[in-house]
């Protein structure tokens, strides 16, 4: 039986696969823990260190373009909306998206998937000229060389949260894409709290996100499952059996926890959307995938639409 090293974030709907309770015929899964899991993205893209690895979707698209020998299956373990992500400095005077023009906005790295989604929304929904913003970053991209000239790197070691609280940047993305952490994605990554002062660009973000979804059908996806292309060339059935195993692991979790109490955010999104909060498969995710590719091209990260996003396989919606 062939060993299959695998790195996933801590998702209840992936645990049965990592534990071996859900089997992949012909393979024995060897879980590899990387914390934060974002640290594994860089290691997978640059060194092909693992057989199967969760990746940020934008990083995966850029890796395909760069000729990195990876492929993927349409499993998206994490989904979230982004209207809540823009936090404004207390004295910035920002009240509407148009006020961001000419401002300095913090994001961990220009190519992070959250940044791509946020910029796409600000441009397409609110008409913000993305070139009018200075994007301030405090970490490197997984794949370098695609950031535009209006990107400025923090050089004094301070976090984006510290800069936002000090009013030295006008706004920033929240969470792991911005103010929620300090340092590069490796062991010892420090969680930070913004505290009082910074405020959301969209106080009514849940209403706006739901409206956007209902109008566009776009449900921002995060974390695609990448596989070393060499393994698929040796075993063309691997993508299908791997996808089926992920689907079964998810099915068991939903059966045991239909209200998503293990991941309350996904439970909230299920109620918000009235549907599955983490749909797998091609048809269920077509609009979201098209939007991410379009935003990535619009922002200069992709030169063309990838010829083939996923390995050939059997991917019924699950």
By CATH, the superfamily of the largest domain comes out as Periplasmic binding protein-like II
Strand content: 15-25%
Question: Pairing-aware structural class of the strands and helices?
Answer: alpha/beta
CATH architecture classification of the largest domain: 3-Layer(aba) Sandwich
How many separate helices? 10
H-E string: EHEHEHEEEHEEHEEEEHEHHHH
Strand order of the largest sheet: 8-7-6-9-5-12
Poorly predicted runs: none
What key phrases describe this protein's structure?
318 residues, alpha/beta, D-Maltodextrin-Binding Protein, domain 2, six-stranded mixed beta sheet, five-stranded mixed beta sheet, 13 strands, 17% strand
Description:
It comes from Amycolatopsis iheyensis. This is 4,5-dihydroxyphthalate decarboxylase. The protein is α/β, with parallel strands linked by helices and 318 residues long. The chain has two domains: 2-79 and 219-298, Periplasmic binding protein-like II (D-Maltodextrin-Binding Protein, domain 2); 86-214, D-Maltodextrin-Binding Protein, domain 2, CATH 3.40.190. It has ten helices and 13 strands. The protein has a six-stranded mixed beta sheet with strand order 8-7-6-9-5-12. Helix 4 (113-126) crosses helix 10. The longest helix has 19 residues, at 238-256. The chain is globular. The mean pLDDT is 94.
